[in-house]
Automatic annotation (TrEMBL):
Protein name in the entry: Glycosyltransferase
Glycosyltransferase 2-like domain: residues covered: 5-52
Coiled-coil positions: none
This enzyme's EC code(s): 2.4.-.-
The UniProt record lists the keyword Glycosyltransferase: yes
Organism: Paenimyroides ceti
Keywords from the UniProt entry: Glycosyltransferase, Transferase
Keyword Transferase in annotation: yes
Molecular function via GO: glycosyltransferase activity
Length: 54
């Protein structure tokens, strides 16, 4: 199985990170059906909100 890693920089994304991740999960399901495996790596650059605990 081929692997894909998506690196996403985040900064104060508390309100949108859940939506992004849920969309990624649907995307990942489609990839698995085509023989791929995907992961996502969030890189937080000092957010002042609650992005980091995600």
């Amino acid at each position: 199985m081929k692997q894909i890693c998506i690196i996403v920089p985040v900064y104060n994304e508390e309100l949108s990170i859940d939506t992004f991740f849920n969309t990624f999960l649907k995307f990942n399901e489609a990839l698995v059906n085509k023989g791929y495996s995907a992961s996502v790596l969030f890189v937080d650059d000092g957010s002042k909100d609650k992005t980091q605990p995600f």
